Structures are given as structure tokens and as C-alpha cells.
Amino acid sequence: MTSTTHSALPGPGGPAPDKLAFTVPSGRRRVTPVRVGREFRRDRLLPQLIRKAVLDDEGQQCVQVRLSAKEAANPAARALLDTEAGTALQLNQLLGGTEYAALFPRIVGYELDTAEPYLLYDPPRGTPVARIHVMSATDQEIFTRDLMLALCLLEGQGLVPRGISPATVFWDGAKVQLWGLESVTRTGRPRRPWGRSPFCSPEQRRGEALADSRDAVWSAAQVLYQLVTGRAGPADRPPADLGEHRKLDQTLRDAFAPRAADRPTPAQVLDLVAPGAARRVRLAVPPDETRPHHEAFEEALRLKRQAPAARPRSGSGPGSADGEVLCPYCLETIRLDLTKLFVTDSRMQYQPLDLAGIKNPLRRTDIMRGAVQKCTADPEFPAHYIPVPYLTYGRPLTVAMVGQSSTGKSHLLAQMIAAITDGGLEPFGLKWQSVNPEQHARYVRDRVQPLRNGKVLDHTAALGMDDFAHFVESLLITDARGQVRPVAFFDLGGEDLVRTDAALRFLLGVDALVFVVDPALALPLPQLDHARERWGVEVNRDGDLAFGTVLDRLPKNGGYLDVPAAMVLGKADLLRFQPPVDRWLSRPPATSLDPELIREESRDLYGLLRRHAGQAWLRPFDAIRRCTLHIASATGGQEDHGRYPAGAGPRRVLEPLLALLAMHGLIQVPGGAEALAVGEAPALEAVPWEAAADAGEAEEPERFERAFERSDGSEEPEGSEGGEQQ
Question: Are strands 397-402 and 127-128 parallel, antiparallel or unpaired?
Fold first, then answer.
């Protein structure tokens, strides 16, 4: 839509109407001519513009709330519009068809991934109470009841409206309508200064502690005080003349308490005004349909806890005493050999490196860091080279991105690396350095910087028939104890991940997996239909083919695969208004790892996939013993003509990698790495006696086999590795 503004709402004979294409609350797309009226700013402190509009396909009158292209370039302004859209859609889904729907604006449609994003609403019902000078006692009672009904409904969804004021509360003589949904935050989030005095609570104005539903009770009380007295109340204490206004005093005296803990909840105030109303509100909200899926998640974790943990495989610790590590390509052991070193010349060709003439230790170290060693451990394997630092810090940790083509694996990995270079690991006591400066600089130049500048990355190039998988980036990660671990990332095209030849041999030695779920392929939700149409894809009820191929290729040890893994719902911005995605995607980046929160996010995403996608999409979680689930978006929005209109704004991209690092012991978490993925067993949870006996009997042949393996030197003695679990 253009930004043309008309001084008045034109009639059919006026200027040619613009075209609007937007998503309606059901998720379907609607395209219609539109005529718009004069534009003005809804609030001088906020970026949104507002104007009347008529949708000419049906003659429907509505209000458009939008951002200009200049304002939309500001991520904070877009975040406000996203918050408003998400809240309006959630309330529409929750209350549609009930008597309570009229308490909030009814959203008609939205278009957010564009240069000038906007929302469409039914026109407001009534007028802002800022324009009302006198309200009768009877109206005050109805007004209080409706406003507290609205706050109760928001509280039930864990939402706190911070912008309640005479400008955002509408009254038509019979019913309240609460606007200002861009101000909503979640209960328990850190307070940020918001609103105008005296309508924002004292704690909200100062930005102290955590948001509480009783913040909104203060705001509502101040609106009512102004309606009753015609003047604003004090900003930090009860009005001195409150006792002169009997109804207000009886109902809301405690609502003016300076501390949220001393105020009543919305439900408590509501029951004073309309006894039993709070209970009726709770009964009107649809029942929770996620419970059986959450119970299935907990049962799956219980079974994983009862399964015996696999013992660390050979070489899974920090490294062998003789300096041998596993080549990530041919999977043979290799150690540093100064006679096989190479460096690249100006034409990117490998040239032998002779260290004999380099006596300066600083220069020698610098050259070694950029050198590679030719691996000759497997003469049958194609020629391949390993960065020298990869060979000098013990066992490397290899991470593979898994998913079909166009699932967003490369975008997610690029934003993970970007988050690391921005210091995202520092709160966890980790430091990083590139393994090979030249390789790192090339990856940043070719992948990270273009994506950060809003460009859509090209698809990952497919391997040739005789080629093999190479890692695309590698870092040296130093943990809080000073131990250094090389971490290498593999990112293959989806067509290569379904190959069964030697190209994927590296998977036999991989240390961690990131399975990227494309919501357009997995979830048959109507709001994804437009994306599917754009990309020419369909829902696949059989799961991601690449997931199955990779899982089948991995060596199995016992009932579960024991390679740590993270499943990620990528492109989650497509579902940023869909519970539970909205709850997690709006959270700020993690600065500490809370196993309980990680388990909660895993449970929520498990429930979403199990309910809508089916068990096939959960195969990695079902097959792998230690597997966490995460919600992330590499770009924050969808592309338009090869670019992201607001730039690529990543959300929660580092959390999956942090979980993998914790499962490998690089980050210490409460309860240990094991508890992070499978949880701690409740006191009453125990393995049945019969199962324990069976496990003990089955262990004897395994002990014999391990002893036999050690006798020929193919395995290290039990207990020789460090404390890390693999």
C-alpha cells in the first residue's frame, strides 16, 4: 500500500483507491481496494499513525493503525505494532463469539512483513473517557465492572496492560472498550518505564521489579478517580479526598496503594462490584487443549530417565594423552605433523609450509594459526585439510545442522555465529576465537554480513558426486575453567542430507545435532497457507525426510541415540502470534541457562508439534535421549523481493547452541548436563524391580564385549576420559 494520505475519506468518484492485501484473523488472505481518510498520530509519544478506511470489496468501514516507512525502519516501533497485533489476535481467538469480545478492539486484518506495516480494526465503540466530564454513579458502577472484566481476562492470559489512561479507555454509555494494546507486557517480565503520570503505577514509572496485574489496577483506579472528580490524582499515594467519594472509596481504596503487593487483583475488585463475575469469566475461557500433549512429553522424559545412559564413546573427552583427535571428515585418528602443513596463497591454492626458517616464536605461532594440515590417515578418502588449531586443543566438537532445503538452516547458523561475535557467550563464562582467521573472515563476509544487512542468503550449494561434507565455520570456545574446545559447524543442503553414500560419513562421528523444523512443512495451520503458496510447498505429514535419513545413519547404543541434539522451530516469526510461540519468541535473549525454563519451552513446542504436526515430526526427540526443543527466528520477519524490509532481526537463535554446549559440559547448569535435557527424577519415580533386574542381566554381555575391545587396544580403558558425558 502506498503512503498517500487524503484530506477526507473520498467517495466512489474520488481518487483511485489503493489496494490492500492482508491476513485476516483466521489466517486467510484478503485482497481489496481501500479508500483512506486523513491521517493523524494516535499518541504523540508513540510512532503509530491512524486513519479511517473503507474496504471497497464489502464497503466495510474500519480503522487502520500503521507505521510510516521511516518509523518502520526502527525495530522498536515494529515491536510495538507486533505486540498490538499479537494481543488483538489472541483476544480475538480467545473471546470471539462471547459477550466479552466487545471489551476489546476487534481486529479485521494485518500485514506486518512489509515496508509500511499496518493493522485494521473495526471502528472504536464509543469515545475516549478523556472527553467525558461527568459520569453518573450508575454508569460508574458499570464502567468499573467492565474495566475489571477486561483486566481479569488479560490477567488470565498472563498479560498486563501498561497503557490504561483516559485516552485508551472508551465508553459508549453502556459498555467499556479497552484500546492501547501496544502497551501490553507479560506478567513477570522486567518492568520498563511506560505511560503517563499518574495513570502508570509508581513501580511502572520507575521501571522497578517485575510486571504485575495489579499495576493495571492502579491505572484503572486513577482513571475512575478522574472520571468522578474531574481531576488527576496524586502519582504515588491515595488521593487525600478519597473518603468524600463513597463508592470509589469502598471499591478502590486499596487500589491506590503505592506497592503492587498491597493492591487487590482485578478479580478481587471485580467481585466487589459484581459478586461471582470473576468465576463466570474463568468459565467463559476455552479449556486448555494442550494438557494431554504436555502429559505425553512428561511421560517421554520419564522413559528416557529410566533408560541407562550410554557410556562415553572413545575419544569423547577433551582429548587423548598422545594428542590424537578424530578427523571430522574421514573419521580416522590424526595428530599434529609439522611436515604436512600448508598455507593458502593469493590464489587460494595450498602451498607447503616450511617452519624451519621461522625462528621468531610470535610470528611462528601466528603463521601456525592460519595453517592447515593435510590428513593422510585414509588414503582412499579424497584429499582434505584440517586447520592446525583444530589439532592442538584436544577433541573437537562437531555440530551438524539438519533439515530439508529452504528450512532456514543456513540463516539460523549465520545468526548463531553473529550472536557469538556480538558477545552472546560471555554471560555464560565462555570466550571465543576463530580456529582459522581466513575461514572465519570469509564466512562472516559471505554469510553473516549480507544477512545482517537484510539480504536473503542463497541456498547452500549441493555437493558433487565425489565430494564430501566440509564444516563451514569453526571456533575455539574457552569455558569458565579455562579449557579450550574447537567447535566446528556443518551446514549441508537438504538434498545432500538424504544421501546414503560416503558424503555423509562425518555423521558417524558428529557430536551434536540441530534439527530445524520448517513450520510451513510441518504445521497445517491456516495462517501458514500464504507462505506455502509463495514457496510452492505443501504440508508433509510424514516428517522431514532429512531427519529420518540422518537418524538412520547414526550409530545406536541401546534404546536411544545418545548424541546431544536440539530441535528448533525455525522461521517462528511466521507463528509469532500463535500460542505458545508468542510466549517464547517475545522473551529477551537468555543470559543464564535455567533447566526448568528449557524444559518448559521443550514441553510447549513438543505439545504444538504433537497436536498439529503429528509424531513423525518429533522423531528426533523420540529417538535421541538428550534432546531439547527451542523456538527461534533467524530473521524476525519474512522477505520481500530478496530482502527483509526491517532488516534481519534474529530472535532466540543462540539458545539451541547454548543447550548443546551445556550438554557437553562447556556450560555448568543446576542439576548438571544430564538434568538439562531429561529432567531430574521426582522422588517417587523409580525403575520397576523387574526392569532393573533385566537391565543388570543385559549389562553382563556388554561388559564382556567392552573388555574384549580394550584387549586389542581399540577402546580406551573405562574411566580414562574426563567427566563429560557424550
Answer: unpaired
